[in-house]
Amino acid sequence: MVGDAFYDIPMYRAQLHVDVMERSADLQNPERRLRQKEESLDQMLDAFQRTEDDLRRPLAYIAATLDEVYLIKTSQLETLDKLSGLTQDDAKNHLLKNL
């Protein structure tokens, strides 16, 4: 009986090793999935930030253009105020001269 147990030890040891490896794999699988999900979220966040940056550039251009339009409009209104005090011929000549 002791002799049989002596020969069975390597078999039990191998089975125990297999069990430990399976449990270790079971524990690593959720960790691996969690890492994959974190990496996926990081990639999504990077893509979102790139898209946000891509959208900000045209908005800055539009804001600058609106400022320019406002300045031009103000200048034209000042010119019209100045011209309103002139005769029709003087106003016509002034406008033709500025073109």
Structure, explained:
The chain is an all-alpha fold and 99 residues long. 95% of the residues lie in helices and 0% in strands. The protein contains 2 helices and no strands. It is rod-shaped and about 125 Å long.
Chart the SSEs and their pairings:
Layout: H1 2-84, H2 88-98
Quick recap:
The chain has 2 helices and no strands. With 99 residues, it is mostly helical.
Helical fraction:
over 70%
Distance between the termini: 116 Å
Summed up, the helix count is: 2
The shape is: rod-shaped
Q: Over all CA atoms, what is the radius of gyration?
A: 40 Å
- Give the averaged pLDDT, no decimals: 83
Content of β-strand = under 5%
The SS-based structural class is mainly alpha
> Largest sheet at a glance?
none
Low-confidence blocks of residues: none
Strand tally is 0
SSE succession: HH
Keywords:
mainly alpha; 2 helices; rod-shaped
